[in-house]
Amino acid sequence: MLDDATLDALGLQALAARRRAYAPYSHFLVGAALLCDDGAVIEGCNVENASYGLCICAERTAVAAAVAQGRRHFRAVAIATASTPPATPCGMCRQVLAEFTPPNGDIDILLVNDAGARVRTTLRALFPGIFDMAQLQSGQSPASTTEPAR
Question: From CA 39, how far away is CA 130, in angstroms rounded?
């Protein structure tokens, strides 16, 4: 786990990225700051479109920018919203982040808002039963690897 000072700095970068979001339809501005293993921080913001299916979340914008720069190993992400409590990543963003989580590893997540709220969690806490490459290689679905309900 990362120290609080590193996560707080990441949170400030996510808040700055949030101010650059393009959300004329929902007015729900989101910023993300992705900490890569090499120490680089890649920012992203949500970008909406009149054709709603073409919208892209801040987290996925940051991941796409990082991958385009050749980075594929992430340690943490800070996500900034105005909601109280700060919003968590959507399911699609959780899956995209999971693609870059090391096997048996995790990604620290810091959720922040403009009012100063701060929630620290991890991807695995928000997204148990991650579907990843190991599932595809074994031919098993996530449901088949868990205990049946009793």
Answer: 25
